[in-house]
Amino acid sequence: MSMVNAFTSEDFERLDAADRALIARREKVLGPAYRLFYERPLHLVRGEGVFLYDAAGERYLDAYNNVASLGHCHPRVVEAITRQTAILNTHTRYLHEGIVDYAEALTATFPAGLAQAMFTCTGSEANDLAVRIARYVTGGTGIIATELAYHGLTGAVAEFSPSLGDAVTLGPHVRTVPAPDSYRGAPGEAMERFGRDVAAAIADLKRHGIRPAMLIADSIFSSDGIFAGPEGFLKPAVEAIHAAGGLFVADEVQPGFGRTGEAMWGFERHGVSPDMVTLGKPMGNGYPMAGLVLRPEVIAGFGPNARYFNTFGGNPVAAAAGRAVLDTIREEGLQENALQVGRHLADGLKDLAGRHAAIGDVRGAGLFVGVEIVSDRAEKRADAALTTRIVNGLRDRRVLISAAGPRANVLKIRPPLVFSRENADTLVAALDDVLRAR
After folding, report:
1. What is the per-residue pLDDT across 279-290, written as a single tens digit (0 to 9) for each?
2. Which PROSITE patterns match (predicted)?
């Protein structure tokens, strides 16, 4: 994936001998495709709650990790995985009550109609399966995604993940549309504009003899720069793809599982009805599991004829981890925590914007916040260089975030759902310190 905060060879000589030696070993055995975060990469050895610890015992506040959405090494999830591993781990071709229990609990969190689940190991696999189903159901091949979307790494999914960079070619059946930028355009126009762009993409597919199969969107546009509002702006786009005979796939890998605070699933904030919803990273709080939740009528033909099996997808240990995640979100009130702490965090960041002209915009929902960094507020001129310095400056102050967006100038803040008001205050104070020191 194209990364705006990657370690490069130019940073190598700044590191101490131990880190240089470990990076050299890593590059020799893992090859050139992998990337590291930060100008001074972190050598992490332990995680607990919202904190990560490096090899020297230093503690870092993790304000970026949505994989361990309940916090690192949550004891309830660890216990569930350990207990089930000691009993049985097979696959879905055997009857197992735990798998069915989990599927029932998961689908119960969705609006009526989204009533069946299929399990994979990764979000990439989930989106790959969604493509297969959409093509079977619609008879089309055309796919519409946003201009800097990231939906996964399989061959089929990389073709509509523009954020992977120019070296990864988009498919000839793929059309991209701009994300609804509420900062550089009037927020009230976002709904109409996004719907119009999707309709134009559908028309272009048809002009080239390509039948539309699906529109896929991450409802908070995580890679495109984090655009959470106005609520409802997905409606015209979804109506357009449905009118063209295609399906709408809501990619909830990043905005799902209560992260936006206002709803369990990001798409619910927009009042739309997906045909399929893809899930991933936070589903098992670090245990590799993912899947789809979909309408029974969508899978009715594909299921008996094309079939589906994934050796590890939905195994009993994964089901135990997933159930522990759902139970913890409910019993610890983590969706409400995301809402309340997210508002507190956003208020703190907006207060900073009153003191630092480099902050052009603060936006998001719940514990998913984007902060636009600019060199000129009036012109809304992106400042990618300052963004990189901020991310690395926070790392030096032991607070971890990242950056996103087409101009590489949006601070991406996406902490575990157990983030507290105190944690939020620590982040805001550290950002204030970095901006004062620049």
Report:
1. 999 999 999 999
2. AA_TRANSFER_CLASS_3
| Domain covering 9-70+333-437, topology | Aspartate Aminotransferase, domain 1 (3.90.1150)
Residues 345/413, Cβ–Cβ less than 8 Å? yes
Amino acid at 111: P
d(CA 419, CA 96): 35
258 sits in which H/E element: none
Chain CA centroid to CA 215, Å: 17
Architecture of domain 75-331 in this structure: 3-Layer(aba) Sandwich (3.40)
Q: Which residues pair with 143 in a beta bridge?
A: 174, 214
Structure tokens at 282: 């936070």
| Domain locations in the chain as residue ranges | 9-70+333-437, 75-331
The number of C-alpha atoms within 13 Å of 127 and in the hemisphere containing its C-beta is: 29
Rounded-to-integer distance, Cα 67 and Cα 323, Å: 16
Report which of 414, 426, 335 is spatially closest to residue 369, judged by C-alpha positions: 414
Whole-model pTM above 0.90?
Answer: yes
- 3-class secondary structure, 24: helix
